[in-house]
Recover the amino acids of this structure.
């Protein structure tokens, strides 16, 4: 495995050189997880940054009655665990589960912090990453308060198309296979409510679901729905 090459694909180290990130290679350890396997749970102690070298994961939280809200979905190559790593509590803030078989490279906190202090561009990228997560969390919270389910579903589909979209005839296909229950967990809504919210979009040809993949056919109309606010 080309470890320096993998590190250079992450948002934190992308501005550096192979020689720069080669300093980190002796500090990396590898772990593998199967699809559906829990990687960590909210409240677990944290002492490392996890580089997702292969696979797909979801970060999620559970309510007291077991309802799931998906905070984020990440594909390789990416990083995860940075929030808990720098949080004063020293514990994980969300659950993380493998959607597909995953391989990780773990980088312990001490060598990471020392490296960031020697490489300001990487430190700046880390701060940008943490800031971006904070902004996304704020928008997600206000969206749940102010937007109706149809607007939240549309905004979630647009975000998925931007991050995981691939052009196909007649639109943009989200390459992740997502059930309506999973989309509901991303939009903080039940499967039943998501089904009702999506039905008119499907009927109007704005979106479709093909072999488990959502396809956005009319982005402009979906954006218009995403901008609508109100309550069901």
């Amino acid at each position: 495995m080309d470890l320096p090459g993998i590190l250079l694909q992450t948002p934190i180290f992308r501005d550096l050189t192979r020689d720069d990130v080669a300093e980190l290679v002796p500090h990396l350890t590898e772990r593998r997880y199967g699809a559906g396997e829990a990687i960590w749970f909210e409240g677990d102690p944290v002492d490392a940054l996890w580089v997702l070298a292969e696979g797909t994961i979801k970060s999620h939280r559970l309510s007291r009655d077991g309802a799931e809200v998906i905070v984020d979905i990440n594909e390789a190559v990416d990083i995860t665990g940075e929030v808990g790593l720098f949080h004063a509590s020293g514990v994980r803030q969300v659950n993380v589960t493998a959607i597909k078989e995953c391989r990780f490279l773990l980088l312990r906190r001490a060598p990471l912090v020392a490296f960031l202090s020697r490489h300001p561009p990487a430190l700046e990228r880390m701060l940008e990453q943490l800031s971006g997560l904070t902004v996304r969390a704020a928008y997600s919270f206000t969206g749940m308060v102010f937007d109706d389910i149809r607007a939240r579903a549309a905004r979630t589909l647009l975000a998925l198309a931007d991050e995981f979209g691939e052009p196909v005839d007649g639109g943009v296909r989200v390459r992740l296979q997502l059930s309506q229950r999973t989309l509901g967990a991303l939009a903080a809504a039940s499967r039943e409510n998501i089904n009702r919210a999506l039905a008119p979009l499907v009927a109007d040809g704005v979106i479709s679901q093909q072999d488990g993949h959502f396809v956005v056919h009319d982005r402009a109309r979906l954006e218009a729905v995403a901008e609508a606010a109100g309550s069901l």
Q: What stands out?
A: The chain has a mean pLDDT of 90. The domain at 3-143 is CATH 2.60.120.10 (Jelly Rolls). Residues 120-146 form the longest helix (27 residues). The chain is about 40% helix and 25% strand.
